[in-house]
Amino acid sequence: MLHTNIRKLSYSLTLFILYLWVYNSVRRFLPLLDDVAQDFCRSLRHRVETEGVGETGQRSMTLDPSPDLFRFALEGQSSCHVLYGERIGLFSSSPSEEAERFIWAVERMLATTPPLLYLPPRLLLALRAPLWTQHATAWDHIFSHGFCSVSRLQTVVGGASDGRFLGVLGQLMEAGQLSSELIKANITELMAGGVDTTAVPLQFALFEMARNPGVQERVRAQVLSSWQQASGSPQKALQGAPLLKGTIKETLRLYPVGITVQRYPVRDIVLQNYHVPAGTLVQVCLYPLGRSPEVFERPERFEPSRWSLDAASGGGFRSLAFGFGSRQCVGRRIAENEMQLLLMHVIFLLQNFIFNCGQCGPWRFFEIICEIYQQFLSENW
């Protein structure tokens, strides 16, 4: 927000959600996400076959999937096959210089954001602290990348596009209902905000399937059956595999990306005999909600099928990872389909692959994060 104020840029509007929900966009952007998901799986298969240990056809390897998942989210949703209708080649053997700069900018933005949540940004700005300088420089390049994409598409929109989908940006420009500045703000925030929020849940989903082989096999069986009946249609394949959607919901139940959902009631309300005046900040804490035995039976278990039963019983507001109503996450439909598609292809294209957990337990993971964070502060403060 401070960067936006200093650079005098427009704020995004939740009106952008009208495009994602009202326009029949899923059918159009799903094939774009599907292409990137298949490229990810081919890249993973090639890596295991060339770098893995063991006999041919039975190779295995231990790897950290986070960099590849980060690139998948960047290439598919954010960088911007869906948003801009173009690829920047993050899974090619030699990404372009612009692609590498964009990756650096998003990585720097994500790395420098957490400390700024607890340190006064204006003080850092006044002191010209390296932390703020890197953060601002990263955002400058992200906005520059978005503005260049807008300019490129302006020469195409209204001309002959050969019927091809020009991405969400192209559709907004063709509709002509939002100004150029608002389009830039919406697109850029969705572009930068849809990377780690997709890549991290995917990593946790693979982690949970790895340590729950029974769940992994049930999801695999349903995906294979659905794919055989879908006649090559990704949308039909997803519709026939509700356990995929359940896997994403179950992952976000246990590992929510956002800690809370916040609202200011517009009128006085009473919640469980508590009077809440209008304008009071009300927060729903997602982490304890998702792990409460009062809300979920045996909450410690990773069980995607619980959401099929939940849908049948009409239990609506137990899944709030994307928020709800007119102010829910603007990229919800893209993110949900993106994560489900990747899991489907990981299971289908790599159907002979079994995922197992390594020896690094959760406490060691926490220790590593602390070590990295301390090193980051010492280098940038």
From TrEMBL:
Keyword Oxidoreductase attributed: yes
GO cellular component entries: mitochondrial inner membrane
Required co-factors: heme
Chief place where the protein resides: mitochondrion
E.C. number: 1.14.15.4
Assigned protein family: Belongs to the cytochrome P450 family.
Residues the record lists as binding heme: C329
Protein location: Mitochondrion membrane
Pfam families, alphabetized: p450
GO biological process: C21-steroid hormone biosynthetic process; cellular response to peptide hormone stimulus; cholesterol metabolic process; cortisol metabolic process; glucocorticoid biosynthetic process
InterPro entries assigned: CYP11_CYP27_families, Cyt_P450, Cyt_P450_CS, Cyt_P450_E_grp-IV, Cyt_P450_sf
Enzyme class: oxidoreductase
Keywords (A to Z) from UniProt: Heme, Iron, Membrane, Metal-binding, Mitochondrion, Monooxygenase, Oxidoreductase, Steroidogenesis, Transit peptide, Transmembrane, Transmembrane helix
Record's protein name: steroid 11beta-monooxygenase
TM region positions: 9-26
